[in-house]
Design goal:
CATH topology of the largest domain: MutS, DNA mismatch repair protein, domain I
Number of strands: 25
Family: Belongs to the DNA mismatch repair MutS family. MSH3 subfamily.
Pfam family, one: MutS_II
Oligomer: single chain
CATH class of the largest domain: Alpha Beta
Low-confidence stretches: 1-132, 254-270, 383-388, 427-436
Shape: elongated
Function: Component of the post-replicative DNA mismatch repair system (MMR).
Mean pLDDT: 79
Keywords: ATP-binding, DNA damage, DNA repair, DNA-binding, Nucleotide-binding, Nucleus
Strand content: 15-25%
Radius of gyration: 34 Å
Main location: nucleus
Largest sheet: 6 strands, mixed
């Protein structure tokens, strides 16, 4: 023992005199490097812990083990306050083959903690040296192993009550989050509190980084009683986040929720976080697939582009994705265009993130295999009525994008949104922005919705006008009845839509099994409340409403939202709001594992409580009871003046000037067992919680349809409000006739911007297929020529989305496209 200690001290002295100089690409250190920086400190911090096994070998990696109390990087479990080893640090060595394996795996570099300036050459770094030693703590080795698998991600590693960054990740996090970064052992490190993880992850993601969250998968009490008690806590990558994949409890938690009104903004992020996948083939044919993982919306498109790539540029600027997925062998022109668009924003938070993938993922053969395997997998069952393989109806080029998107979203565990095949729709060029701001656009005029999911649907209506006369007529009938009806039910329904959280994102988060108990309770309680209140309005709606669209929406919605009530009934409201999964379920008949664990805990607790009788007899104190101090339970307080009555085998936990606090050997064993059961209960409850979310997810498509009905009602109320406020008229649809006849038409946007003080001058339009087919507009600059042309196009779009229009009278045929060309810009179209 003494020989081992003096050998370790000798090596420690050498480490002090040497430096934290160049750590080579393969993580080796040369002990005899005379050029090392002598101002560095010892890279290994002595700590107490269990002895490790020593293996033979000439080259060795020294690993220092320690306790789990957080005194060092080792984080090995404690043995108790009075049983800590007094032998000092213990050295574990790894044989040369293990070191060579580590060298082969390490293909990335980290920032050096000590700050030496010398670097080894490539040949020297790759050849083992007999005198070369690399000293890393177990946590550092664990981090390097995970980082090797996820080189493009910035990793947050859970270490007790905080999350830590290492190496280059720490320097990046310190710069972006404005936190302190300092050298510790072999790497630079920075840390953030665990309860602020969601704030900092969102900040890093908004700046364009891919962020990975690494969590501990073991607990202290269970590990201390297991066969691996002397090893490091296991950690795994639990989640990855980018701008388009911000779905999960880590980035959208409800930490405090006094009532539902306080938590209404939990999922209020209504921005369209679209992921756009772009690929191209010969003949300048491009294809795109746009998906929003947080809501399940998808759009597909395939188009031919010219040398200026105006079609692609137009789609990117109008859809405004937050992330674009492209192959690494993109053409130079397309690469330049996307890079310029991504860097166009002045603020980093607004920039589009470009994700480049291996071009093999975009090849048709590979993509087709991925798509077939994905939709043929029996574990990914879809209970949607019209569930079928969507690739049967997709164009061959689009399948290449779909395959790449499936592989990409699988990394984030968000691929299930692609199972909802009814979400696939053709892409249209959005009309909800003009110069980059919503104000002054057609969407700005029409959007008076009250819910986030209603606003998203209004965007769809504006960007995808209808071409079916029956569907347009149904929307117009609904708007007309809202305006003219004296029904008491309709104002009540619109009141119910106020101050709702984002139900669409909420149920999608539950479907991904990435929501917290607080968010689940909020979403399910709102769904249940809406179902109950709409149910009470059914008699009035059946007797007062005539429009088939309104009747269908309002009569179906209560039954579609009803499944939420059953899930809400088994939850403990107080525990759900606090995030306590161990007390979450009120009826444990459906959760036998939790019931069994709680019965075991109750039995152990009863034994500890009955042990008080023996303690009272030993200390001759009939009123003695257990106390809890600083989280330590079942403590026996004895005055220091009476310490002579304490048996010698009792374990002293802590003391003050007045009393000492002890555990009997019986309590030591039973308390340890109780802690193990408590931690196992947390694991069991977490597993049952995931199963609970899975059962809720079986109703996802029904609930999503109900929320879609609410969004449709919100949009219809909005269109009615706009028509009433601006004196719009109902356009007449002339199905089968090619005509645009408008009397006293007004530009919908300019009319609102001017207001009542300066009225817009109305204009007539008369175009007919069998008569006047063209008009030439002339006039001076700033005379309103372009505004007039836009006015005709916007009125046509409003008519075909089912809205009333700004005119005294209008008769418009069904159009399948609007073609525009300004100055020398290439022709473009809206369909």
């Amino acid at each position: 023992m003494h020989a081992n200690l003096s050998l370790l001290k000798s090596k420690s002295a050498k480490n002090k005199s040497s430096s934290q100089a160049s750590i080579s690409r393969f993580f080796t250190r040369q002990e005899g490097d005379k050029n090392a920086n002598k101002s560095g400190r010892n890279s290994a911090r002595p700590c107490l812990g269990a002895p490790g096994k020593v293996s033979s070998g000439r080259s060795r990696v020294e690993v220092y083990k320690g306790d789990a109390g957080g005194c060092c990087e080792c984080e090995l479990p404690h043995r108790g306050p009075t049983r800590r080893s007094e032998t000092g640090p213990v050295k574990t060595t790894v044989s040369e083959p293990s070191l060579n394996h580590l060298k082969r795996k390490a293909a990335f570099s980290f920032s050096q903690a000590g700050g030496g300036t010398g670097k080894k050459s490539a040949p020297e770094a790759g050849v083992p040296n007999k005198r070369t030693r690399s000293i890393y703590t177990p946590l550092e080795l664990q981090f390097m192993e995970i980082k090797e698998k996820h080189r493009d991600a910035l990793l947050c590693v859970e270490c007790g009550y905080k999350y830590r960054f290492f190496g280059d990740d720490a320097e990046t996090a310190a710069k972006e989050l404005n936190i302190f970064c300092h050298p510790d052992h072999n790497f630079m490190t920075a840390s953030i509190p665990a309860h602020r993880l969601f704030v900092h992850v969102r900040r890093l993601v908004s700046k364009g980084y891919k962020v990975g969250v690494v969590k501990q998968t073991e607990t202290t009490a269970i590990k201390a009683s297991g066969a691996t008690r002397s090893s490091l806590f296991t950690r795994e990558l639990s989640a990855l986040y980018t701008k388009s994949t911000l779905v999960g409890e880590d980035v959208n938690p409800l930490l405090k929720m006094g009532d539902l009104e306080e938590a209404e903004d939990v999922v209020q992020d209504s921005s369209s976080n679209y992921l756009m996948c772009v690929s191209e083939s010969w003949g300048r044919q491009s294809k795109e697939l746009v998906v929003q993982p947080s809501t399940g919306d998808l759009m597909v498109d395939c188009f031919k582009d010219g040398p200026s790539l105006s079609e692609l540029e137009s789609r990117v600027l109008k859809v405004q994705p937050v992330e674009i997925l492209v192959p690494c062998d993109l053409s130079e022109g397309t690469e330049r265009l996307l890079r310029n668009i991504a860097l166009a924003s002045v603020q980093t938070d607004d920039r589009i993130r470009i994700e480049r993938r291996d071009s093999q993922h975009f090849e048709f053969g590979e993509a087709m295999k991925t798509v077939k395997d994905f939709y043929a997998d029996p574990t990914r069952h879809c209970k949607e009525k019209d569930s079928y393989c969507p690739y049967v109806h997709l164009e061959r080029p689009v399948i290449s994008c779909l395959g790449a998107v499936i592989q990409y979203l699988t990394e984030f565990k968000l691929e299930r949104v692609l199972l909802c095949t009814s979400s696939f729709s053709s892409s249209a060029r959005p009309l909800f922005q003009t110069t980059g701001a919503v104000r002054g656009s057609l969407l700005w005029v029409l959007d008076h919705t009250q819910t986030p999911f209603g606003r998203r649907m209004m965007k769809k209506w504006v960007t995808q006008p209808l071409t079916s006369a029956l569907e347009i007529q149904a929307r117009q009938d609904a708007v007309a009845e809202i305006l003219a009806s004296g029904s008491t039910a309709l104002p009540t329904v619109r009141t119910l839509l106020q101050r709702l959280p984002d139900l669409e994102r909420g149920i999608c988060s539950i479907y991904h099994k990435k929501c917290s108990t607080q968010e689940f309770y909020l979403i399910s309680s709102v769904l249940a409340r809406l179902s109950a209140e709409l149910q009470t309005l059914l008699p009035a709606m059946q007797s007062q409403l005539c429009c088939s669209l309104l009747r269908g929406l309002l009569l179906e919605t209560p039954s579609l939202l009803a499944p939420a009530q059953g899930f809400l009934r088994v939850l403990n409201e107080s525990a759900a709001k606090k995030g306590s999964k161990t007390e979450l379920f009120t009826d444990l008949s459906d959760f036998p594992a939790i019931q069994e664990r709680k019965d075991e805990m109750q039995a152990v607790l009863a034994e500890i409580l009955s042990h008080r009788t023996e303690i009272r007899q030993t200390l001759r104190n009939p009123s003695l009871d257990y106390v809890t101090v600083s989280g330590q339970e079942f403590l026996i307080e004895v005055k220091n003046s009476m310490s002579s009555t304490v048996p010698a085998n009792w374990v002293k936990i802590n003391s003050t000037k007045v009393v000492g606090r002890y555990h009997t050997p019986f309590i030591v064993g039973k308390y340890k067992r109780l802690q193990q059961l408590r931690e196992q209960l947390v694991i069991d409850c977490g597993r049952e919680w995931v199963n609970f979310l899975h059962r809720f997810g079986e109703h996802y498509y029904i609930l999503r349809k109900g929320v879609c009905h609410l969004a449709t009602l919100d949009c219809l109320f909005s269109l009615a409000q706009v028509a009433k406020d601006n004196n719009y008229c109902r356009p007449e649809l002339s199905d089968g006739k090619q005509q645009i006849v408008i009397r006293e038409g007004r530009h919908p946007v300019i009319d609102v911007l001017l207001g009542e003080n300066d009225q817009y001058v109305p204009n007539d339009t008369g175009l007919q297929g069998d008569g006047k087919r063209a008009m030439i507009i002339t006039g001076p600059n700033m005379g309103g020529k372009s505004s007039y042309i836009r006015q005709v196009a916007l009125i046509t779009i409003m008519a075909q989305m089912g809205s009333f229009v700004p005119a005294r009278q209008a008769s418009i045929g069904i159009m399948d496209g609007i073609y525009t060309r300004y100055s020398n810009h290439p022709a473009s179209h809206i369909r």
